Target: Response regulator receiver domain-containing protein
Amino acid sequence: MTLRTVLYVEDDPVNAMLMQGIVELRPGCRLQVARSGAEARAAVAAGGVDLLLCDLHLPDAAGDELLAQLRATGLPARVPALLVTAESEAEAAEFARRGGFDGCWTKPLDVAATLDSLERWLAGR
Model:
């Protein structure tokens, strides 16, 4: 089984821990957490990301602007990217669209729905 890597750009340790718990429910999948835009750029440069999850509010970057920087750093266009935010669904969708994301998840996350969506994105949508 090929190990799939989900990169989660999130500065809140509780949100990162929740996502870790969700990703651990999917066999063959591991979560890598980047706590800032700088850490995300380094992780992307190192390669091996299969799915990008990005918080909207980061200490050193606007999440909705970070995707373009990560694509320029080497995140392949084939790697799906989802914005993860506590904004309303309508606002989240607008931020995601403007930032070039493939979709968005809104917090608080529903574990079953998030796991289901995670499966679909890692399977190629």
